[in-house]
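ugh ok fine here u go
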Amino acid sequence: MLNVTALSNIHLISEVPEFSIFDFYINYKDMLNKHSGYSFSNLTGLGDISLLAAIKTLVAKQSKLAFSESDDGIEVYTDDTGLIKRIRSEFSQYKNIFIYRPDGNSFKKA
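structure:
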């Protein structure tokens, strides 16, 4: 069973002050057009696009607010290898995005 106490500090993205739903929709459209293999008509890959758009929204806001790399950063918990590759490719210049994979009863950095 997964150790959920390690995840007790997780917040809904809509509760993060830096998050703008307006910017998210713009980034969603951009990510949907940029990455192939996703489709509204087939409803494929929309979760990946949502995560990429959410990360882009937070990263853009952090850049405007001059957040430092010492801040908490953005944490993504996934076991999806394709998504991990897309996040690394899309946001390789940002050092405060941390990806974690399930590892038995906990998570480890991917």
